[in-house]
Specification:
By secondary structure, this protein is of the alpha+beta class. The chain has one domain: 3-Layer(aba) Sandwich (Aminopeptidase). It has four helices and seven strands, in the order βααβββαβαββ. The longest helix has 15 residues.
Length: about 160
């Protein structure tokens, strides 16, 4: 059985994360300093798809807020060389598991209104639009606000009869 390629990011991954950012986004990119800060912060989770351990195929960044039941999927990116191979879907699933494991009952995100592929990915996984931010991105594109309720984690002991 193949091991799960998704793991928590480390400081050793920062250069590869910058490479994914640069290849994926024309603007509004996370920089080295921000990635290093996020890796040191207890207020989130940065997960990577390590593929076959030779290179990172993508990442997902979650932010957690104290005294809230809502986690935020702040950023997700798949390196363009790995698009269409299920990397994004695996990262979304891992993000949902991570949010549930931290006690969150809802996951929210913003996405470019013109990003058809990502919108299809999230809508196909049960995310629904609940709002919009006008001119949210550097080029004036609107952002759609999506959310998904997360099923509560049920302890295995309570499932036995």
């Amino acid at each position: 059985m193949k091991a799960n390629p998704i793991r928590r990011a480390t400081l050793d991954d920062v250069a590869a994360l910058i490479g994914i950012e640069d290849a994926s986004f024309p603007g509004n990119r996370l920089d080295r300093r921000r990635f290093r800060y996020l890796l040191a912060s207890a207020h989130g989770a940065l997960l990577v798809d390590a593929g076959d351990d030779r290179c990172l195929r993508g990442y997902v960044l979650l932010l957690f807020r104290a005294n809230s039941t809502i986690a935020r999927l702040y950023s997700i990116a798949t390196h363009p060389e790995h698009l269409g191979r299920g990397v994004g879907a695996g990262l979304v699933d891992a993000a949902e598991r991570q949010a549930r494991a931290h006690g969150y009952t809802c996951l929210r995100l913003e996405i470019r209104a013109d990003n058809a592929a990502s919108l299809a990915l999230f809508r196909g996984r049960g995310y629904r639009e609940f709002g919009r931010h006008a001119a949210y991105y550097h080029d004036g594109m609107d952002a759609l606000r999506l959310q998904k309720p997360l099923a509560p984690r049920i302890p295995a002991a309570s499932l036995t009869g």
